[in-house]
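Intended use. Records like the one below are meant for learning the mapping from a protein sequence to its folded structure. Do not use them to infer anything beyond what is encoded.
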Amino acid sequence: MRKVFLFLIALAAVTVLSAQTDSTPNWKTKVNAAMPLLGHRNWILIVDSAYPLQSSPGVETIDTDAHLLEVVQYVLETMNSSIHVRPLIYMDSELPFVPDEDAPGASNYRRQVSDLLHNYPVASLPHDTIISNIDQAGKQFQVLVLKTRMTIPYSSVFIRLDCKYWSGEAEKRMRAKMGAAQGARPPTQ
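Structure written out for the chain above:
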């Protein structure tokens, strides 16, 4: 009887631990599930551990419990294998000025993130400007925030998704043709 009782307690403990593990969303699964749904004007943010929980309705935050560079690499690989989106990458203009004395490892991180992003153009903007842009986007478009264990300030990588199969140049050419066609039509009465 005692063995049965101990077995039931062990089974209950395994069930509880399993349920706790299953209830925590796997960030890679979330990225894989979200990628086909996301499109141009959506954002994916890979942020440091002090990044605030935003209250805009379109913002979803996931704690990855992973290193920031690991998450950036995975997100970029997932985007590169998609047929519909490409990354427009933004970083805080404050990062180059963060000294190792105040944030140990900042110089090493700058080298590592530069190596990881060397194939992509990276725009540098003040942190407050990026946050404001994301806040505006979150009112109308989905923003996925992947929070990491990073403890270096201004280290976040902000990715605005753009259309992979339609470039900005193609859009300009089409708009010019539309404008020319509208200008060539006689006014309607």
